[in-house]
Amino acid sequence: MTSRHSRPSPATARLVEENLQTLAQLRRMVAALAPERYRQAFGAHGHHTLGKHVRHIIDHYDALLDGLDRGEEVIDYEQRRRDEALEQWPQQAAGHLAGLEARLALLDSGPSTDALTLAYPMDDEALCLASSLDRELAFLTSHSIHHMAIIALLAEQADIHLPESFGVHPSTLRHWQRVSEEQAPPSRRSA
To answer: What global pTM score does this model have?
Structure first.
């Protein structure tokens, strides 16, 4: 059996850093918004807001980190808080995101949780799928970026200007950097 108190995997620090970069980008965007813009409804039925997507991202991080804090080995993303204040008030959401960043930063230096189980709902039962902290961190980056890409589309409709890199997966950003370096004249390439 894998020890719950082993050293973090070599990948954990890199995965934590990707999540920290993702959350920091989201936090900066959220902190700059007025509540009216954050709550502005989009879509034919008005079901989409920037705040709802932000709250959804926060809920997933809370599910993982709260479970780890309680020493649980089963992670269930369906058991989310769904705190409506986080989708209504951007400053509250920005503060919560900062707290998540602080909690995540502790993961790459503390004891590792090698073996986790993901509860995945299927019809009337939940499947129990083997997972790990590293796998869940990779999922959270991708899940967050997916919702941030939707946020970017909604923001564009509201004439909210975001950086080109907002909602772009870190692997894509690394690819863009490599392509840029390869296309640079030899005198301008990194040594």
So the answer is: 0.86
